[in-house]
């Protein structure tokens, strides 16, 4: 297995892309720490699935926008499994508001969850990697909207643009410590964050027409790539973004 006995932390791990990542890395032998901030019953159900398949997972309730909670999360991973090997910064939110309508509270919340959390989780994980030795990996789940404007969702785009530059700069800074930082930029994925689109046949028809592969991604489409990137087979990749979008950035202007 590609991740046998590796310890992997997944933020926002009990739904959507995060849940699929947990299942994918556990299937490759990883010990998984599932971060969540709500719906503990979903976390318990996910852990039961992992264990039923012969894997190992624990849940940790942590608000990723709070660095103190991130310290607790990383500490729990090390206490439970002896070390940290991979951090996956997956937690994310959006407001679907324009520049003219976004409030200060909207902006602060999106940036705190999407960007501030990734920054400080990367910092905390990097210090753990250095102290234990042997290098490590940070995977950031960003979005095609780190580079592709999405009118009407500006705070989200700004936060994801920051994640892209965090990945590039942290990857350069941490390379001498054998710590890699890689960004994953999904396109449209069938998760709760896109439920309003999925519920509107006209919007779905427009979206699918804009995607060269003619379908919205499933969370497993992203998770399978994440599991590969987390393995030693992607050992020479850092400070870069892997786009998983079905070709939408090449096949359409912004939706």
TrEMBL record:
A Pfam family of this chain: adh_short_C2
Taxonomic superkingdom: Bacteria
Keyword Nucleotide-binding: no
UniProt keyword terms in alphabetical order: Oxidoreductase
Ranges of residues in domain Ketoreductase: 6-147
GO MF annotation list: glucose 1-dehydrogenase [NAD(P)+] activity
SMART domains on file: PKS_KR (SM00822)
Gene3D superfamilies: NAD(P)-binding Rossmann-like Domain (3.40.50.720)
Keyword Lipid metabolism attributed: no
Broad enzyme group: oxidoreductase
SUPFAM superfamilies in the record: NAD(P)-binding Rossmann-fold domains
Enzyme Commission number(s) of this protein: 1.1.1.47
NCBIfam families the record matches: PRK07231.1 (NF005559)
PANTHER family listed in its UniProt record: OXIDOREDUCTASE, SHORT-CHAIN DEHYDROGENASE/REDUCTASE FAMILY (AFU_ORTHOLOGUE AFUA_5G02870) (PTHR43639), SHORT-CHAIN DEHYDROGENASE_REDUCTASE FAMILY PROTEIN (PTHR43639:SF1)
Membership in a protein family: Belongs to the short-chain dehydrogenases/reductases (SDR) family.
UniProt-recorded name of the protein: Sugar dehydrogenase
Organism per entry: Mycolicibacterium sphagni
Phylogenetic lineage: Bacteria, Bacillati, Actinomycetota, Actinomycetes, Mycobacteriales
């Amino acid at each position: 297995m590609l991740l046998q006995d590796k310890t992997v932390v997944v933020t926002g791990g009990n739904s959507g892309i995060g849940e699929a990542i947990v299942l994918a890395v556990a299937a490759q032998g990883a010990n998984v720490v599932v971060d969540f901030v709500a719906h503990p019953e979903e976390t318990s159900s996910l852990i039961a699935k992992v264990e039923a398949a012969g894997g190992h997972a624990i849940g940790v309730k942590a608000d990723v926008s709070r660095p103190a909670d991130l310290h607790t999360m990383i500490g729990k991973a090390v206490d439970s499994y002896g070390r940290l090997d991979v951090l996956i910064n997956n937690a994310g939110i959006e407001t679907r508001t324009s520049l003219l309508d976004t409030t200060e509270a909207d902006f602060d919340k999106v940036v705190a969850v999407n960007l501030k959390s990734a920054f400080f989780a990367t910092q905390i994980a990097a210090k753990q990697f250095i102290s234990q030795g042997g290098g490590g990996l940070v995977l950031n789940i960003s979005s095609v909207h780190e580079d592709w404007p999405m009118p009407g969702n500006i705070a989200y785009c700004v936060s994801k643009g920051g994640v892209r530059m965090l990945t590039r700069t942290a990857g350069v800074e941490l390379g001498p410590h054998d710590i890699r930082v890689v960004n994953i930029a999904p396109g449209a994925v069938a998760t709760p964050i896109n439920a309003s689109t999925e519920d509107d046949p006209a919007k779905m028809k427009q979206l699918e027409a804009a995607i060269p592969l003619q379908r919205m991604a499933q969370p497993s489409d992203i998770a399978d790539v994440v599991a590969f990137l987390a393995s030693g087979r992607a050992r020479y990749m850092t400070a870069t973004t892997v786009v998983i979008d079905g070709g939408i950035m090449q096949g359409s202007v912004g939706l």
